[in-house]
Amino acid sequence: MYIIGIAGGTGSGKTTVVKKIIESIPDGRVALIPQDSYYNDTTELSIEERRKINFDHPDAFDWKLLTKQIEDLRSGKAIEQPTYSYLISNRLEETVHVEPCEVIIIEGIMALWSKELRELMDLKIFVDADPDERLIRVIQRDTIERGRTPQMVIDRYLDVLKPMHEEFIEPTKRFADLIIPQGGNNRQAIDIMRTYIIHRTRPELRVESVE
Q: Would the pTM of this model clear 0.70, i.e. be above it?
């Protein structure tokens, strides 16, 4: 098993990088573990209280559960991955059954923050992007997917995303084995990374270049 951690700020393009890697590997040989699924269970809080939580702070994540489930996968055990809803700011009852496979990708803004989690990784990647590019992507995503107005997104970026990025996310770049600038637009870096992953797992996994 080969475990990869992919971190980067909100809107950096890390999700696009992950998708392009997964598309190039045959079905059943890679499993994606999104860190967003491991926000703390806040069932005991009201919806108003949940919305006051700083979801860009390390304390918002259930590190114990995430680490334990990655350890289980590494030891050959299947897991029931939690699911999370941004609409209610809490976990859902449904889980996702994940079987151990050749490549495990952990993707999230703070995927490289926890020392215990980093120690389980074979490859650590940081997806980088200019702040203005990240802000544009966040505005596009949150207005479409999360029902926020552009001004709401800008206010949240200035009040929460930017300071949290500078304090907790940007410093994890020093733990990365590979830094990918320009996010999902960096075709060359994605090709190099994908080829490296293929050769580290099974040599027979040969695929065409990313278009």
A: yes
